[in-house]
Design a protein that fits this description.
alpha/beta; six-stranded mixed sheet; three-stranded antiparallel sheet; globular; disordered N terminus; single chain
Length: about 350
């Protein structure tokens, strides 16, 4: 079989059995190879483990998965360097206005564990602080890791919806005694609170939120995911499985096969959670133990592979609405444009 290198942002292999399929190839057994990009967090690592380690396979396609930090993989995914991947809700909301031909075909990471929904994003202060409730945030400054994140947009929206309090960037503050000032702050926000460098922070990314919420040195002022669940009846969907629209139209059965393979891999991960949590912790040689990752997966941040419809679609659109309220979007995206199905015929 003749092959050639095609230079884009990544190298892909093309076979004679494919004509103009982007970022896919035929291997020696004539299987279609689909490149998939995702995050290197434990939940995504777990759900893709059986595929990456060849514990399971598909007779029709080969799913080639690359995991990296969101800052590394989401940019090339949105640039078209892979036909499939996972995308944060914050970036999903921008696809239509940016003209990016990705469509969300399934939920992926949700702020709910396999057993409980204890949340991921928290407003945290010191345990001895006089701040005890969201109402006490009036006139205070809250540090956030990223102004443009969906977590920050959710905080702004939920604080306004539930408590009538406006949270704004410092330069937009009108009434400093009655509004919440948002300041983008780098570094470890929990440690900054512990050391007294800042008073209050929105903490959630990289498992820091669940960790801080259980630390006796800190106090939870708001559990954003718990408030969201109480309003919408579903956990926050923080990322979705996306596919290039043209690729799916040209290869509907292959996309369906990839989705079914991911569902089988998720089942494998769930069945081997104890073993794989220990393996993940050992590979990283970090300060966390297997029990920590199991706790996160079971109680805070898991994987849900399901079609985006009904109340789930409504809840994701609500998150998009939060981004619109926070000034991150020009207009709400059309659900018929940004949402699809893994089953297209």
């Amino acid at each position: 079989m003749n092959i050639r290198k095609r230079i884009a942002s990544v190298f892909v292999v093309l076979c004679l059995c494919l004509t103009a399929v982007p970022l896919a190839s035929c291997n020696k057994s004539d299987k279609l190879v689909i490149e998939m990009l995702g995050a290197d967090s434990f939940n995504t690592w777990l759900v893709t483990y059986a595929i990456r380690e060849n514990k399971i396979s598909s007779p029709d396609i080969e799913l080639k998965i690359t995991l990296a930090s969101t800052t590394v993989y989401e940019v090339p995914l949105m640039a078209g360097n892979a036909p499939m991947g996972t995308l944060s809700s914050a970036n999903l909301a921008t696809l239509q206005q940016e003209g990016i031909p990705l469509v969300a075909i399934s939920t992926f990471v949700v702020h709910s564990g396999a057993l409980e929904h204890n949340g991921v994003n928290f407003i945290i202060t010191r345990a001895d602080s006089a701040i005890n409730s969201p109402e006490d945030l009036r006139g205070k400054t809250v540090s956030v890791a990223n102004f443009a994140s969906s977590a920050t947009a959710s905080f702004i929206a939920l604080l306004k919806m539930e408590y009538g309090i406006d949270a704004k960037m410092k330069e937009d503050i009108v009434d400093a005694s009655n509004e919440v000032t948002l300041v983008q702050t780098g570094g470890n926000l929990a440690e900054a609170i512990r050391r007294g460098h800042i008073d209050i922070a929105l903490i959630g990314q990289q498992n820091e939120g669940p960790r801080a919420s259980k630390d006796p040195d800190f106090k939870v002022v708001m559990n954003l995911d718990d408030i969201f669940y109480s309003i919408y009846g579903t956990p926050t969907v923080t990322s979705a499985l996306v596919v290039n629209r043209d690729f799916q139209q040209n290869n509907p059965e292959a996309v369906e096969a990839a989705y079914e393979l991911l569902k089988r891999s998720l089942a494998y991960g769930d069945e081997h959670l104890d073993e794989l949590a220990a393996k993940f912790a050992a590979e990283r040689e970090d300060r966390e133990h297997a029990d920590f990752y199991k706790m996160i997966y079971n109680g805070h941040s898991g994987i849900s592979l399901g079609e985006i419809e009904g109340e789930v679609k409504d809840s994701i659109m609500a998150v998009f609405g939060f981004s619109l309220m926070a000034g991150r979007l020009d207009a709400l995206p059309d659900p018929d444009v940004v949402f699809g199905s893994p089953y297209v015929r």
